[in-house]
């Protein structure tokens, strides 16, 4: 598909055409097999920790959206995969330099050509987004979608960093919990249930 074809498919919401740019979900899950994964959220409280070395020691480091990294000591330096639900400015793209980008948002019109043709690009299926939205009773965060996706794999361990469900707000913006469309209480309870039932998952 060329750029014009992409723009037409995006405008017409041609999901089949857009999905043709994505690696299959089965390939993505296969890449997680036996991996120790660090999923790094954007809670402000993470900046007060010393988890950076532990994050960088994971087999695979996944960050979210603009992936603020205010200090190496708290956040580490590596980004292998970047889970996106927003357009990424060129400066952030160069700073983060992910090896793979995953587009998690159902809002396809926000997806840009540069992201769609990036190596290993993954487009999260609308059906999976909708199923989690129905389960949580509200639009899921990018972090919640990634947690669900990773748990479908045969990963060895998933460590969650920077997930306090908006208790300390976000490093990537100034909005309060009331100003975003997510149900953080429900997401917190859902994650706790996952942790209780799956010993591979640890939240720091």
Automatic annotation (TrEMBL):
InterPro entries: Glyco_trans_29, GT29-like_sf. The keyword Transmembrane helix applies. It comes from the Bacteria. This is Glycosyltransferase family 29 protein. The lineage of its organism: Bacteria, Pseudomonadati, Pseudomonadota, Alphaproteobacteria, Rhodobacterales. GO terms for molecular function: sialyltransferase activity. It is found in: Endomembrane system; Membrane. It comes from Paracoccus kondratievae. GO terms for cellular component: endomembrane system; membrane. It is a single-pass membrane protein. Keywords: Glycoprotein, Glycosyltransferase, Membrane, Transferase, Transmembrane, Transmembrane helix. Pfam families: Glyco_transf_29 (PF00777). The keyword Membrane applies.
